[in-house]
Specification:
five-stranded mixed beta sheet; alpha/beta
Amino acid sequence: MASLQLIPTYTFPANPIAWPTREVISAIASHTSHRDDHLPDVRVVGEHPYLSGLVLTYQSVLSGTPITSNGPFTREDPSLSDFSVVVCGPETRYGPLDLREPQAAASLADSRNGFREVARVRLPSQCDALIYKNDRLGR
């Protein structure tokens, strides 16, 4: 399926590295209270061509555990989402639009803001994507 990303992955050189999108979706699913009327909303904090809101949405459908997530360059407040995934690694490593959001990441790391770290998933960039659950939404 063709990528709908602003910086589509098919424009990068062939790369055998597997990004752990299944593991991210599995971690989110294991911390979701299953309600038929609400799909978990996941905010990816940072722009990344291999681990983004669109990529996670696609992986969630493949995994049979659908979520909703943000598109490219969405800067909505993470407190509006059930989960947040903070991408890591050096900025612009995977292209000029590979960017981080340090202020949003710092807000998530502060437990006084209602977020709780529920999982870490090791990325090929040799750091961990941090997955936070928003306990204030109570979903």
